[in-house]
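Milestone M4 deliverable, item 7.
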Amino acid sequence: MSQVAKEITFSDNILIVSKTDLRGNITYANRHFMRISNFPEVALLGKPHSIIRHADMPRGVYYAMWKTLKAKQEFFGFVKNLTADGDYYWVFANVTPDVVDGKVEGFFSVRRKAPQAAVKHIERVYENMRQLESRASKDTAASTSWQWMSDTIQEQHGMSYDEFILGLYEQHL
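Output delivered:
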């Protein structure tokens, strides 16, 4: 019988930090990252950051993240991550290009505990995104769900994704 995945929690003052190269392979992971994800350093370094990607995360969120990072801008978002033993943890992520002499060398990610009320809200949004992705072609699924999210936020809240996501985080601190 398989074990039911449980949510791993951590305190508000913990910062999970990692750095990747341009392809998203991990080049640095702090101790909090290793402890919470339950991956040893040797299992993280050189591996794609997607090693912690949870199946509940819509592809559209990562589509938006990479689009934003390629424009040399920082990305904010709520992310459900997978641990080495199949559990999960929610974070509020800030991913920033590491620019040296005007050239992007890689990416920094700093993650904080995601407020539970914000997670409950974003889970409903992500469920809709996953449903859209399941009905779309593989080539358009991520961009379709991202466009739906952006349009819905604009229509329902009259603001951009960044304004909405930062507001959702701050509102539930």
